[in-house]
Structure formats: C-alpha cells, structure tokens
C-alpha cells in the first residue's frame, strides 16, 4: 500500500509536470499564432500595396551639363573598432578642434564612445563601453546616438531611447571618455520619462542646447534645454515647450528637422509635419519657422511665433495638406532660391494619388506657394508604424552658376532613379533632368568592404573647416524595429579623412540623418521564419509533455519507488 501511494505521488508529480508543460505549450502556441498573424501583418503594413511608382524623367534639355564637383582624396583611414550590424541604427561622429569622437554600438550592442587626438603621433582610439543597462540596444532603429561637445571641451552623449527614460552621460574630465558618467535628470524628471529623438545643437552664444521629445507619436511635446559649462548644469532654454501636441480636439506631435548650426544669414531653420497617431499616414500640415537664437522664433515674413507651437499656430504653414496625403516625416529639405530666400522640397501625393516632388517657394507677396516638379505615375503607399523606409528622397534646392537651381532626388520605385532636376529659378519649371554628378566622396569610402549581401554601407559625413571626415560601417536593413533571425558578424567601423570639402551639394541619399531612414525595403521574411521556428519548438514541447503523461499512465506501480 505504501508503495502504491508513493508511486501515485510520483505519478502525480509527473502528471502535474506534463499538464503544466502541455498548458504552457498550448498557451505559447496560441500566443505565437497571434504574433505570427499580427506580427506578419504589422511587419508588412507599409508594403501591403506593391510599390508601383514609375519615376519617369522630367522633360527638358537632355544635353544639359552640370558642373563637375572636384574629386576628394582619401588622406587618412583609421579603424575605430567593430560594430553591431544586425540592424540599421544611426551612429555618430563629431570633431571639436583636435578632438574627435565616435559614438557607436559595439559587437555586443553596447553604446561605446571612442576618442582620438587629430595630428598626434598616436593613431589609436581610446574607447569606453558605457556600463549602464540603458546603454544596450535592442532592434529599434530609433535608438540612434547623439554627441555634443560644450564650450570647455566636455563630451555629452545621449542615445538608445524610444519613448524611454532619459539616457544621458557627460564626461567629468575633458577628452577622457572613461570619465563619462550617467546623469539621470537634466531639468525636470516629469518631462524626461518618455524621451525620443535626442539632438545636440549649438546656440548663438556657443552654449550647448539639447533637443528632445517627451511622449509618443500623436501625444508628444518637444523641449530645448541649455547647458551652462561654468556651473555644469542644464536649465530650460524656453519657459514652455517648443511644440505642444495638445491643441484642439485631436492630440498630435510635431516631427521636426532643425539645422544644428545657424546658416550664413544667422538663422536656425526648422520644418515639421504633425502626426496624430503612430501611423505615418497621419502626417499633415507641412510648416516652417526660423530663429537667430533658438529662443525667439519667427515666420518666413518675420512675424513672431508664440510658443509653444501648436497645430493651429498662424503664419507657419507651408502646405496645409491633410492626413493621408503621402508626406513622409523628416524627409523635407530647406534650400534657397535665386535670391537666397528659403525653399522647402518635399514629396506627397498628387490629385491622382501618385507620389510627386514639390518645391514650396515664396511669391511676390512673400506667401508660400508650391510647384509640382515631377509627373510620375503609380504609387508607393506612405503608411505603417515603427521605423519605415522612405522610397523617395529629395534634397534642398541649390543655386547653379548659370542662375538655375538644382534639385537632387532619389526614387526606389519600380523604375529606380537617382538624378538631378534642373529648375528655372523664376518659374520652378524643370529645365532638364540629368544624371547626378559623381559624388565627391571617393569610391574607396562608399564601396562595400564585406561581401555579406544582407548588409549595406552606412555613412556619416562630417565636414569641418580643416578637413572632411566620413564614418563608415555596414549593417542590415530596417525591419520596422522587429528582430531578424540571422545577423552577420560585427563589421569594421572606420573613419576616413578626405583632403578637401566638396564643391557641390552631396546626394540626399548620402549619409542619412538620424531621423532619415534610407530607401531600402524592410524584409519581414526572416521575422516570419523566426516566428515559425518558435512555433515548432513549442509544439514539440507540447508533444513531449503529452507523451510523458500517457507513458506514466501505462506504467505499473513499482515497489520501493519514492
């Protein structure tokens, strides 16, 4: 009897184990099935409709010849280390006098900072991997790195944030990256809990300014903080938020692009669109304003802009397009017309639903008017959530020696194109479309150095007054912030020194800005394979559990078993 009781206890334990395993298998199978349906759907949301865009050339003089940019020479090459290559996330290069810094994710995905002294006999980099848990990135392409150097040479680092608590470090000893120390709060913990899009700017007085968004897509506010290098403290640059999404019945957030330094006229120029949800299709109302000090903002006509800027702020709207107009945030570019006045280049749908390039410019009354530049057919549907791939890119207009304007563009449609449209500077009508002049960046820099077909070259172009520098690495594609089953080995991270700055505007597809994903199609296939693999593992676990349960029921009690 005791033996039978012991055997029953033993069998009961196995039964409970098998039941738990079986329940876990069923639950896991259900969850993975849901993820497979929802995940696959979300991974391909932006690709639900095929990209049928045909980028037919603009009419004009096919014999037009562009000025040829002088070729640069590579005069230096230095490997910083190796970097994570599993997905694209923007890394950083900044030069301050003789000090050069690189912010990158190392082979273990940890945010790492490197420093070297230019012109020294030593060519080695001092590197420091930040020890904080906040410094380890996942699969989110929003987690880019921002670097800034203040007026006394201290380095400031922010990164690995997407709707996350502030992740920020600063050196306590100039030029020593090992002295980087985490600072949990800058000015107000209440507005530093859901941070995205960090950027360091330099104010008109030389102070370092930190820009970021608090909140998510559709409900975020944007802030500017000012750094006092003497007291080593941050304070709000403005008495209020720069942008407030809470305006009217619908909450929105501003997706803005601002120049990191003042232009030749002394202005910081800012453009933005508003978004009401996480879906890029809800972008609307392209706008512009400028400032000489990042504090006092004005419209293009010089009228003051009251802060915070809201969806209903008057005088700033460039193109009052509604939602579902096909505008991709942070893809618009500021340029100049023949008189040096600002222009804004961008892409949106035309009345037939095809993507087109437009240039907004000022008329005789200093009012914004938009001219359609292209007459493409077909469409790439601008829709979806997470980090998406822009299939159309455009540069700012720039003056040519003959008085015309050049407009660089790229199109990844069914007939890919990367070219220059020459515009009449008065009418903005196309004069010609010609191949882009060869980039002044040498092929040695732009060519792939690894043969892995899943990786692409990534560049950060950082011109200075003395020389130009390019940070180069290779990584896989954007995958809407979702994991990829296979990842290539860590890739070399290299800084090239170029002999002289280019004389022409680089192609808009050359290095992408932090919030400008490159034009490459996300691939959900590997994500789907990973989900199926996990589903198979869980199904096997369920089968093993049921087999153990049935076998234990068939086995007779054994005397002496415990």
Q: Would you write up a description of this structure?
A:
The protein is globular. With 562 residues, it is an alpha+beta fold. The longest helix is centred in the first third of the chain and has 42 residues, at 2-43. The strands form eight sheets. Strands 17, 18, 19, 20, 21 and 22 form a six-stranded antiparallel beta sheet that branches. A five-stranded antiparallel beta sheet has the order 8-11-12-13-14, with no helix packed on it. Strands 27, 28, 29, 30 and 31 form a five-stranded antiparallel beta sheet that branches. The chain has helices at residues 2-43, 443-446, 525-554; strands at residues 74-83, 92-96, 99-105, 111-117, 126-129, 145-149, 155-159, 162-164, 168-171, 180-182, 195-202, 208-214, 221-228, 233-236, 246-247, 250-251, 253-258, 268-275, 283-291, 297-298, 304-305, 317-319, 333-336, 342-349, 355-362, 368-372, 392-394, 398-399, 405-411, 417-423, 430-435, 456-463, 468-475, 491-498. Keywords: Membrane, Transmembrane, Transmembrane helix. The chain crosses the membrane at residues 524-550.
